[in-house]
């Protein structure tokens, strides 16, 4: 049962869980971390930006742990999760795979480095973290994994082939993992946002402005109009859906759109 508290959705009487949020320094990751902390969970924060993580930790209402890391390092998944397990005395129970980045170029101009960077951060790093965390969840027969994908996991747009391929792969990973552990008390889902009001979208606005000569306000409005609700998605709206996936034992193997009606499914 969900109850409304201060305009947000909150689950009453939910046991406190050990959570790990990647890409937690800002944007969606920071909103998710705050949402989980406000719901009473302990939240470990990881990203490359140690200063941002430390600042966020001071704002969280509940217990937190700062674990800076470059998740494209093959050793990072084990190092980060091992540190959380040692500090908090048990396995990760909620894993939010939010760290990611985008790139834009025509397919013919997409370099091997561009391609590798998108796959390394958006697909391989989540795979390694999921592989490391899943056994502990299965052993205790309770776990929640939520990957922050994109509506790019559901369709193809021009000039974002590497990003789109990585997000399609992430959704495939989620669906396969969910099928594998559905009978073991563990759920695995993806949240697929449209354009969210985050620093990443601000970077997209700056790129559009630089390439086209249009003003930043005009470029921002163009992205807002791509969504039927006529605005960017708020990071808190994505966090609400992540929380829903954490609360529910019946939602698994899904890619839930949070895109203002852009992609109907």
Describe this structure in words.
The chain has a 7-stranded parallel β-sheet with strand order 5-4-3-6-7-8-9, sandwiched between helices. The protein has 2 domains: 15-194 and 234-255, Rossmann fold (3-Layer(aba) Sandwich); 195-232, no CATH class. The protein is of the alpha/beta class. It has 8 helices and 9 strands. The protein starts with a strand and ends in a 7-residue tail after the last strand. Helix 1 packs across helix 8, helix 4 runs parallel beside helix 5 (161-181) and helix 6 crosses helix 7. Strand 3, helix 1 and strand 4 form a beta-alpha-beta unit.
Summary of the model, kept short:
This protein has 8 helices and 9 strands. By secondary structure, it is an alpha/beta fold.
Features:
single chain, 265 residues, alpha/beta, Rossmann fold, 2 domains, two-stranded antiparallel sheet, 8 helices, 46% helix, disordered N terminus
């Amino acid at each position: 049962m969900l109850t409304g508290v201060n305009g947000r959705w909150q689950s009453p009487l939910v046991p406190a869980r050990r959570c790990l949020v990647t890409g937690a320094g800002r944007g969606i990751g920071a909103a998710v971390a705050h949402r989980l902390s406000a719901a009473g969970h302990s939240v470990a924060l990881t990203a490359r930006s140690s200063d941002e993580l430390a600042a966020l930790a001071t704002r969280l209402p509940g217990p937190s742990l700062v674990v800076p890391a470059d998740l494209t390092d093959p050793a990072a998944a084990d190092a980060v999760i091992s540190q959380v397990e040692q500090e908090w005395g048990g396995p990760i129970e909620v894993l939010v795979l939010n760290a990611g980045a985008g790139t834009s170029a025509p397919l013919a101009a997409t370099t091997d480095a561009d391609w590798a960077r998108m796959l390394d951060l958006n697909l391989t790093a989540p795979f390694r973290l999921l592989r490391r965390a899943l056994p502990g969840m299965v052993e205790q027969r309770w776990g929640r994994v939520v990957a922050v994908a994109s509506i790019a996991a559901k369709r193809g747009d021009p000039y974002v082939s590497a990003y789109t391929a990585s997000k399609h792969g992430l959704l495939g990973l989620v669906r396969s993992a969910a099928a594998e552990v559905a009978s073991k008390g563990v759920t695995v889902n993806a949240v697929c946002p449209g354009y969210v009001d985050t620093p990443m979208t601000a970077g997209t606005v700056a790129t559009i402005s630089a390439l086209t000569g249009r003003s930043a306000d005009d470029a921002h409005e163009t992205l807002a109009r791509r969504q039927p609700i006529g605005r960017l998605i708020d990071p808190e709206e994505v966090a609400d859906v992540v929380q829903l996936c954490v609360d529910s034992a019946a939602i698994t193997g899904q890619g839930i759109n949070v895109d203002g009606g852009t992609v109907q499914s």
